[in-house]
Structures are given as structure tokens and as C-alpha cells.
């Protein structure tokens, strides 16, 4: 179930890759990823499992989708995973600079 959720969110984020990458696009993508990662943290699932699933998923993509997945999403995993216990996904993405502070 978790794998399906992760993949579904990544597909949704990836489908918008051909659109101009505005701050909203980056913020939404980061918040989506943070939400999934928070679920992993709450269920105490190992980060290694998530990284393996995400890497395999990215490798299955092609072109711009693969580049976006590998260059923008995978590098966020460690940072967000470590910080999620005490913050919201939006706060994490604001801290990382993907969302403007409200």
C-alpha cells in the first residue's frame, strides 16, 4: 500500500514536469513528497526502504521525468525524513527553500 501511495504521488508530481517550474510547482512537489515521508516516519519504516522504492521508480521513468525525479526528489528524501517528526510537510519545504514562508 505504501509503495502504491509513493508511486502515485510521484507520478502526479512528475506529470507536471513539462510545465514551467514555478515556485508553486516546486513547493507542491516538495509538500507531496514530505507528506509521504511523514507517513513512513510515523509508521517507523526504514528510510532505506523508501530510498530503494524511489530509486527504482525513478529509473523506470525516461527523459525529463527521470531527470526531475533523480535530481529534485531523491536528494530531498534524507533531509525531509530526518526533520519530519516535529514539523509539518509545509514547514519542512519552507525550511528547504522550496516554499515561501507564509
Automatic annotation (TrEMBL):
Domain Saposin B-type: 23-102
Keywords associated with the record: Disulfide bond, Signal
InterPro entries membership: Saposin-like (IPR011001), SaposinB_dom (IPR008139)
SUPFAM superfamilies noted in UniProt: Saposin (SSF47862)
Signal sequence range: 1-18
Entry protein name: Uncharacterized protein LOC114329034
Lineage: Eukaryota, Metazoa, Ecdysozoa, Arthropoda, Hexapoda
